[in-house]
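Re: How this chain folds, sequence and tokenised backbone to follow
How to read it: Take the token row as a discrete description of the fold.
Start of record: The labelled sequence and token lines come straight after this line.
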Amino acid sequence: MTAEQLQSLIAGGLACHHIEVTGDGRHWSAVIVSPAFEGKRLIQRHQAVYATLGQRMHTDEVHALSMQTLTPAEWAAQH
């Protein structure tokens, strides 16, 4: 899997204002900005992202995914 494919999967299942994915093919890091994260705890945000990946997390297609999940307001405050 490529970073572009992983980014496309996440964006396909979650409305994203911004998304960056980097990694080596198995270990990934992502910055995901979505209004869907409003009012959600960190674990709920991560679960929403994992839901977009489905079985890929369980079949080792995506071995590890480190995430920074932000609302648009949180993202704007950082940039």
